[in-house]
Design brief:
Helix content is 26%, strand content 30%. The chain is of the alpha/beta class and 355 residues long.
Length: 355
C-alpha cells in the first residue's frame, strides 16, 4: 500500500512513519508548511511546524530511507483555521482550532492531494485507533485524540491510519530512542500552534481590534467596560474587570456573550449549568445518521467534560439531553458522542455547539 505520512517533526509522527516502513508499505513523508513565516512558530514546546520541525522531520526520513517533501499549505491554514478561529471569537464563540485543522487541512486538503497522487492512505501520529473503519479512543487515555478527530467522515477515515494509537506515549518515546531518532526526547507542542507566545487575547486583539462593550450582571447592571467580546469565554472567572465577587460573596463567571451588542453577562456558578445542547453540521463517523434517540457519552472538551446523554437528530441538527448538567459549555465548542458499550471508546459522531 502507498502511504503518505504527515510528519510534524515530533516523536509521534516519526514513530508512525517508522512503523509504516516496518509494515512493508511504500512510504513517503511530507511536512506541512502552515505559515508564511515558519521560523516564528516555535518557542520551546510552544507552537509547531517551524523550520526546526521541518528539519527534524527530514532527518527522521533520512534515517528511515524514505522520500521526504515539504508541502505549502500556509494559505489554506490561514483561511480555514486561523481566520476561522478569529471570526469565531469575534462572534462570541469558543472554537477548537485543532478540530478545524484536522477537518480542513490534514484530512481534507492533504488527504485529497494524497489520493490524487495515487496514495492509498494518509498516516499521522494521532493517538486514536481504527477498528473496521470505526474510530476509537487510543490505548493511552491521557493522550487520546479521538475528540479532535471526530469531525472526520467515514470516507476520510477509510483512507486514514493511526499507527501509534495502540501504544502508550512513554513506550513511543522508548521506541524512538531504540530506533536512534533524535526526536525521542523532543518536548510535545502545546497550546495553540499559531500563537507561540501563548497570549491568545493579545493575538485576537491585534486581529480584531477594539470593539467596546459592557460587562453586566443578571439584572442588567453595568459592572465594567471592555474592549471586545473576544477577550471572554463562557465560564471565565478571572480578568473580568469587575470589582470583587457578587453580592453574596461568591465568585462571578462569564455566563453569556452577545457579540452583536458587545454585552458580556456574568453570574454565579450555578448559572453556568446546562442540561440541553444543540449542535449544527453533524458528522457521523460510521457514515450512517442516527435513527431515533441514541444513548451515548457526550464530551465537550478535548480532555474532560464527559456526561451521559440522549441525542437525537432533528432537522439536520443534533439535540442532546444531558443526564447530568455540565458547566461552562460555549457555542463554537465541539460535542463528540461515544457509544455506551462496555468499552465506551467508539466515536459515533460530532457536531458544533450552537446553543
Amino acid at each position: 500500500m502507498r502511504v503518505l505520512v504527515a510528519m510534524s517533526g515530533g516523536v509521534d509522527s516519526s514513530v508512525a512513519a517508522a512503523r509504516m516502513v516496518d509494515a512493508g508499505h511504500d512510504v513517503v513523508g511530507v511536512h506541512l508548511a502552515l505559515s508564511s513565516t515558519p521560523g516564528t512558530l516555535r518557542t520551546g514546546s510552544r507552537g509547531c511546524c517551524s523550520k526546526e520541525d521541518a528539519g527534524d522531520a527530514r532527518r527522521v526520513a533520512d534515517i528511515l530511507n524514505i522520500p521526504f517533501y515539504v508541502w505549502d499549505f500556509a494559505d489554506r491554514f490561514k483561511e480555514d483555521v486561523i481566520d476561522d478561529f478569529v471570526e469565531s471569537y469575534a462572534r462570541g464563540e469558543t472554537p477548537n482550532p485543532c478540530v478545524r485543522c484536522n477537518e480542513k487541512i490534514k484530512f481534507s486538503a492533504l488527504s485529497a492531494r494524497a489520493l490524487a497522487l495515487g496514495f492509498d492512505a494518509v498516516a499521522t501520529g494521532h493517538y486514536a485507533r481504527l477498528d473496521g473503519g470505526r474510530l476509537r479512543r487510543a490505548v493511552d487515555a491521557d493522550k487520546d485524540q479521538s475528540y479532535v478527530l471526530a469531525v472526520l467522515t467515514a470516507e476520510q477515515l477509510r483512507h486514514a491510519l493511526f499507527p501509534v494509537g495502540d501504544t502508550a506515549k512513554p513506550r513511543i518515546r522508548e521506541e524512538a530512542a531504540q530506533r536512534g531518532l533524535a526526536v525521542a526526547d523532543k518536548p510535545d507542542s502545546h497550546d495553540i500552534c499559531f500563537i507561540p507566545s501563548g497570549d491568545t487575547q493579545a493575538f485576537l486583539g491585534a486581529k480584531i481590534g477594539i470593539r467596546p462593550g459592557a460587562v453586566v450582571d443578571a439584572g442588567g447592571v453595568v459592572l465594567a467596560e471592555h474592549d471586545g467580546v473576544h477577550g471572554f469565554t463562557i465560564g471565565q472567572r478571572k480578568g473580568l474587570g469587575i470589582a470583587g465577587p457578587g453580592p453574596d460573596g461568591a465568585p462571578r463567571y462569564v455566563t453569556g456573550i452577545d457579540a452583536e451588542t458587545g454585552t458580556v453577562r456574568v453570574g454565579a456558578a450555578i448559572d453556568l449549568e446546562v442540561s440541553t445542547l444543540r449542535g449544527e453540521k453533524p458528522v457521523f463517523t460510521s457514515g450512517t445518521a442516527f435513527d431515533g434517540p441514541v444513548e451515548c457519552v457526550l464530551q465537550v472538551r478535548a480532555h474532560g467534560g464527559l456526561v451521559e446523554a440522549v441525542v437525537e437528530l432533528r432537522d439536520g441538527e443534533l439535540h442532546a439531553e444531558l443526564r447530568t448538567p455540565l458547566r461552562g459549555v460555549a457555542p463554537g465548542q465541539t460535542m463528540v458522542l461515544y457509544r455506551t458499550d462496555p468499552a465506551g471508546d467508539e466515536v459515533l459522531g460530532s457536531a458544533t455547539i450552537v446553543r
